[in-house]
Amino acid sequence: MTIRVMIADDQMLVRQGFTVLLNAEPDIEVVGQAVNGLEAVDRAAELAPDVVLMDIRMPELGGIEATRRLTRAADGAVKVLVLTTFDLDEYVYEALRAGASGFLLKDASAEELAQAVRVVAAGDALLAPNITKRLIAEFSRMTGTPRAPLKDRVGALTERETEVLSLIAQGLSNGEIAEGLVLAEQTVKTHVGRILMKLGLRDRTQAAVFAYETGLVRPAGY
C-alpha cells in the first residue's frame, strides 16, 4: 500500500527536495504541495493524503493552526508530521496539543525522513531526540505538581498498560516497545488501544501528555 504524502512549506527548495527524496521510495508518493497553511488545509481536503509534512512557520496561516484544522476536519484520518529548523522551537508543545503526530528536523537524512513518514502513517508518534528533550523540559515546567484528578485515572490501567504508557511517553514506537518488553507488536497495539480507551484519549501524543501531567513519568533531573 502506497503512503500518500502532501508537503506544506513556503520554501520552494524544501518542497521540491522532499518531493524528490520521498518519490524515490517505492512505498511513498507525494500527491501535492502547499505554500501556506490555508492552502494546506484546502488541498488536504481535496487530495486526502495519509500524511502531511507541515512547516511550523508559514505565511497567511501557520503550521500550528493548520494542523489543528486538519486534524479536526479529518477526525484523525490525516496524520501531520511537523517539520522545523530548530530543535528548541518554542511551538513544539503547542503543535502537539493541536494534533501533530510528531516532529522532525529539516536537516534529517533521506532515510530518516522516509522512515518518519512510515512511522506516522502507521499511527505511531514520532519525535526527534532533541525535540523529545525539549518537550520533556516543557512538560516539567508547565505541569509542576501532578494533577490529582488525572492521576486517579491511572488506576484504571493494568500494570502492563501502565508500563506501556510510560514507554509511549518516552517516545518509543510500538515496535520498540514490543522489542523492549519482549512482546508481539500486535499485542502492544492492543495495549495502546486499551490505554486510549480507558483514559479517554485521542492518540499517542495525548497519552504522552497525560503520562507527564499525572507524574507517571518524570524526566531525569526534575
Automatic annotation (TrEMBL):
<dbReference type="InterPro" id="IPR011006">
    <property type="entry name" value="CheY-like_superfamily"/>
</dbReference>
<feature type="domain" description="HTH luxR-type">
    <location>
        <begin position="150"/>
        <end position="215"/>
    </location>
</feature>
<keyword id="KW-0804">Transcription</keyword>
<keyword id="KW-0805">Transcription regulation</keyword>
<keyword id="KW-0238">DNA-binding</keyword>
<dbReference type="InterPro" id="IPR039420">
    <property type="entry name" value="WalR-like"/>
</dbReference>
<dbReference type="InterPro" id="IPR016032">
    <property type="entry name" value="Sig_transdc_resp-reg_C-effctor"/>
</dbReference>
<protein>
    <submittedName>
        <fullName>Response regulator transcription factor</fullName>
    </submittedName>
</protein>
<dbReference type="GO" id="GO:0003677">
    <property type="term" value="F:DNA binding"/>
</dbReference>
<feature type="modified residue" description="4-aspartylphosphate">
    <location>
        <position position="55"/>
    </location>
</feature>
<dbReference type="Pfam" id="PF00196">
    <property type="entry name" value="GerE"/>
</dbReference>
<dbReference type="InterPro" id="IPR058245">
    <property type="entry name" value="NreC/VraR/RcsB-like_REC"/>
</dbReference>
<dbReference type="InterPro" id="IPR001789">
    <property type="entry name" value="Sig_transdc_resp-reg_receiver"/>
</dbReference>
<dbReference type="Pfam" id="PF00072">
    <property type="entry name" value="Response_reg"/>
</dbReference>
<dbReference type="GO" id="GO:0000160">
    <property type="term" value="P:phosphorelay signal transduction system"/>
</dbReference>
<dbReference type="GO" id="GO:0006355">
    <property type="term" value="P:regulation of DNA-templated transcription"/>
</dbReference>
<feature type="domain" description="Response regulatory">
    <location>
        <begin position="4"/>
        <end position="121"/>
    </location>
</feature>
<dbReference type="InterPro" id="IPR000792">
    <property type="entry name" value="Tscrpt_reg_LuxR_C"/>
</dbReference>
<keyword id="KW-0597">Phosphoprotein</keyword>
